[in-house]
Amino acid sequence: MAVVAAAIFVATLVVVIWQPKGFPIGYTALIGAVIALATTVVGLGDVPTVVGIVWNATLTFVAVVLISLILDEAGFFEWAALHVARWGRGNGRLLFVLIVGLGAVIAAVFANDGAAMILTPIVVGMLRALNMPAKAALGFILATGFIADTGSLPLVVSNLVNIVSADYFGLAFAEYAAVMVPVGIVSVLASLGMLLAYFGRSIPKRYDVLALTRPAAAVKDRATFRAGWVVLAVLLVGYFAADPLGVPLAAVAGVGAVVIVLVAARQPAFLFARQAASPVLVTTGGTATVTGGSGGTVGGSGRVMPVWKTIREAPWQIVLFSIGMYLVVYGLQNQGLTDYLARLFDVFGDHGVLVTALGVGFVIAILASLMNNMPTVLIAALAIGGAGATGLTHEVMIYANVIGSDLGPKITPIGSLATLLWLHVLDRKGIHIGWGQYFRTGIVLTVPVLAVTLTALAGWLTLIR
């Protein structure tokens, strides 16, 4: 049965990564789960256990991404990016630093998928408006994609991987943040250093600030834009209060999503005729042009914000994927295959905190880069749960699993579904990044950042414990 369990896992994973047309990842994972049940690799009694483990994580993630999608339609992120570009005051290198910083903040608050999928098109449009050289533009784009994952460590909600791990090991939001906010800052700084070292020479010294539109012109729905700030503030408080009150994070994020949807879908919906005081950047078919001017309207009277379309396009497939894939992975545990990984982790645990952090983190990173980070974090969580480590060593393993699963996927394009989608979005905008080029860049950037971040984890946990 162990061979059957492994075969089902590999086959499911191949189809998920391949993503053939007509086979969404959620349905693919569910088919794998059905086969696992039919072959008795997992039993019906395992289904409630798996659903109990993943429901809070997946619904929280969907709610956070839905909030980010609605705010993106309202112009929230374009407004932020344009402000950041103006803060650069024409200094190319400062603009690069600020864009990376903005990406890290968006990743921390709106999850890595939000940062990669929403900020990247905005940055592409901005770079085209500034007439950035192709080599420099590629550096900005790759930096945006890279920081989306390396900046997704600080909060439980910053990455689906974080939520799954925190739920499995019972980590409270505040408890997780106390460890990972400082470690996450180190990760961002290390990423920034590597990105500057790698792309620094291609970044132009100056850019024309006047080529950019006013930030206010990016706001398409002022009520939703303003409500977004309130919702984000309430969410942050709610996240910290949820655990002491026994409220699941999915409920907190879900309420925030409902509020922002209701504001965006209000009647009359999105009706306005605001005068444009400056040119507006419009991107059509991957080409940025500047239109508008005094006397024109931004958005146009009667334009309706596509709220229901945005809701339909939210990552609902992730819910099915999480349940289905975890059932397939659970079959590996039932057949004893995760025990081998648990024994390896125990070997690392026998050699101190630093070796544990580096050993577990790099093993997880390699697995994530080869077979995607979602099944990896699930397999590793089961292995850590079955390992003999206790106390500080056990805690280091838990957080090293998160770091390896967050950062490791940047080594290869198949490391995370977000990266595959990000590459697809770039292709649609006429920017092709080959897998070979991605790997050559990803491994050079990721390995040093991963080593620094895991070392910071070991040092910080040793200090505070």
From TrEMBL:
<dbReference type="InterPro" id="IPR000802">
    <property type="entry name" value="Arsenical_pump_ArsB"/>
</dbReference>
<feature type="transmembrane region" description="Helical">
    <location>
        <begin position="94"/>
        <end position="124"/>
    </location>
</feature>
<dbReference type="Pfam" id="PF02040">
    <property type="entry name" value="ArsB"/>
</dbReference>
<dbReference type="GO" id="GO:0005886">
    <property type="term" value="C:plasma membrane"/>
</dbReference>
<feature type="transmembrane region" description="Helical">
    <location>
        <begin position="438"/>
        <end position="463"/>
    </location>
</feature>
<keyword id="KW-1003">Cell membrane</keyword>
<feature type="transmembrane region" description="Helical">
    <location>
        <begin position="223"/>
        <end position="241"/>
    </location>
</feature>
<keyword id="KW-0472">Membrane</keyword>
<keyword id="KW-0812">Transmembrane</keyword>
<protein>
    <submittedName>
        <fullName>Arsenical efflux pump membrane protein ArsB</fullName>
    </submittedName>
</protein>
<keyword id="KW-0059">Arsenical resistance</keyword>
<comment type="similarity">
    <text>Belongs to the ArsB family.</text>
</comment>
<dbReference type="GO" id="GO:0008490">
    <property type="term" value="F:arsenite secondary active transmembrane transporter activity"/>
</dbReference>
<dbReference type="GO" id="GO:0046685">
    <property type="term" value="P:response to arsenic-containing substance"/>
</dbReference>
<feature type="transmembrane region" description="Helical">
    <location>
        <begin position="176"/>
        <end position="199"/>
    </location>
</feature>
<feature type="transmembrane region" description="Helical">
    <location>
        <begin position="314"/>
        <end position="332"/>
    </location>
</feature>
<feature type="transmembrane region" description="Helical">
    <location>
        <begin position="247"/>
        <end position="265"/>
    </location>
</feature>
<feature type="transmembrane region" description="Helical">
    <location>
        <begin position="377"/>
        <end position="401"/>
    </location>
</feature>
<feature type="transmembrane region" description="Helical">
    <location>
        <begin position="52"/>
        <end position="71"/>
    </location>
</feature>
<feature type="transmembrane region" description="Helical">
    <location>
        <begin position="352"/>
        <end position="370"/>
    </location>
</feature>
<feature type="transmembrane region" description="Helical">
    <location>
        <begin position="27"/>
        <end position="45"/>
    </location>
</feature>
<feature type="transmembrane region" description="Helical">
    <location>
        <begin position="136"/>
        <end position="156"/>
    </location>
</feature>
<keyword id="KW-1133">Transmembrane helix</keyword>
<dbReference type="GO" id="GO:0042960">
    <property type="term" value="F:antimonite secondary active transmembrane transporter activity"/>
</dbReference>
